[in-house]
Amino acid sequence: MDAELKCPCGESEKRTMRSDEERKSLINRLSRIEGQIRGIKGMLEKNAYCPDILTQSAAVNAAVNAFNKELLASHIRHCVVRDIRAGEDEVIDELVATLQKLMK
Hints:
This protein is mainly alpha-helical and about 100 residues long. The chain has one domain (about 1-100): Metal-sensitive repressor, helix protomer (Methane Monooxygenase Hydroxylase, Chain G, domain 1, Up-down Bundle), CATH 1.20.58.1000. Helices cover about 70% and strands about 10% of the residues. The protein contains three helices and two strands. It has helices spanning about 20-45, 50-85, 90-100; strands at about 1-5, 10-15. A two-stranded antiparallel ribbon has the order 1-2. Strand 1 and strand 2 (about 10-15) form a beta hairpin.
């Protein structure tokens, strides 16, 4: 699903073509996370009790992790598999680097 596209400036950049269903699912997750963040901001503005804010913050972390898992699984199933089949083994190094960033 990745496609290398040419930028108007002449640079190439990788992009991933997603199905409408996948794009909607990911955007919905991000919208919920965005709402949770706004909720936490509102709690701070109203001087909510710290443990209550921390509970909501933990929920946001869990939601971001769920988003990352969904996106990573899709990336492995489509982009990584395709690139390996095409003999582009450098995708493995890219995947390892991505996983290292996620596990910080």
